[in-house]
Give the backbone structure.
Amino acid sequence: MNSIPAHIPPELVRDFDIFEFVRPDEDIHRAWHQQVASAPPIFFTAHWGGFWVINNASLLERAFSDPALFSSADGVEIPPMPPGIPPMLPIDSDDPFHMELRRPLNVALAPKSVNDLSIRARELAIELIEHLLPQGRCDFVKDFSLKMPMELFLRIVDLPSSDREYLLGLAHTALKDSKKENRWAAMTELNGYLEKKLQARRENPGIDLMSKITQLQPKDHSLSNSEQIGYMTTLLLGGLDTVGGMMAMTARHLAEHPKDRRSLIDNPSAIPDAIEEIMRRYAISTIARRVTRDAEFGGVTLKRGDWVMLPTMVHGLDEKRWDNALEVRFDRRPTDHLSFGVGTHRCPGANLARAELRIFLEEWLKRIPEYSIDPERKVQSESGAVAGLSALPLIWPVDGGRALHG
Amino acid sequence: MVKITFDKNGLRHEVEAREGDSVMRAAIENGVPGILGECGGNLACATCHVYLPDAWMERAGEISEMERELLDCALDVRPNSRLSCQIAVTSDLDGIVIGLPEKQV
């Protein structure tokens, strides 16, 4: 499993495991920053069947923008999904098929739709924060950051809010459980749930995105039941721990940087710029591609069939691209960070993600302006395809007094 | 070069655009505020929405089915709306004044 193919020069091999990149008590972005500074612009690791890691901002831009060399059709996960799991469409596909698949999704996440969804997002944010407020404490990850994206998914595909907690439980197990069997069992149950709902839409279509997925007719390729399930799974999971993770990164940054927090409380109109800068500094997604032909790239020789990892956090933490990359400066106003990717696969939910982050900050800072990390509990980082926090314990004063402990 | 003026409530930005580029690209590269072009011209985001003067609609070329579908989901769409990533800069557009919406998102 840990063999090195013959075409890989030994000096380009590093011991890098995406799933064990940092310990739970380490800071994942500092670790990436260190790696960008110390490892070659592109290197190879033998873990998980062996793959290249792009470790340089400009190479990352080139790879994202060259889908003819870096294909998504064999999947974008390292290690590849086990056989039998439906493909994550439309991510796991190349143009022109990919572009046809994206059409209903682009419409569902376009500015006008995001405006409508924002109304529900704000209601929910207020409801959740008002509920947490008197408690003086929460685990931000469990109690807040995943709930808003799940609720909006349910809106987009017209499923009842009452399924939210059930699906959050399943999604959490499917994505985060340390036992592979548990992850797959949860995934199977999730797929079964989605399969039933898809069937109901085929019999009784509406105008929601799920109905449109059942009606998709790409040229020369009608979508199988399994592909439709895969599309739904991508929708459900794709906006969940990504948006939730970025929200947690934002909440932690502002807990640890009271000056930055104060500046947004005093001037909420600076929130959109702050969000862009936080997304640059704390990008969390990694995505893989497969090489379509032998080619020179970034000074190395890639062979057809090689897997390549594109970690978006490398871009925001490259000192050659950003001056003092670790420093968060809200007036930096980055318009070209890669946290949503770039090119044809660029995150279709970017506008919605921004709206969710903005609404969270507007409503949270209004109600809980003074908060900090609970010194008696631990912030926990997690590695993996989407990096993030598995726990973010926060406390704040209640009724003008001290935060509750215990 | 082709002269294109972008106008948002009377605030104007004049750019010299390269033929063959899209109008969206010309705006982004010249730092025109008010056009986002989120998706980079892949017809995926509807954030390069503009208004063309009626008399110029035909010169800007046909609107495709895919553009129509996405354009309908932009904000404050009017009969003279277009997505500027789908308009190629040609000498036919020299001197055009393109209106920008109040907001893209």
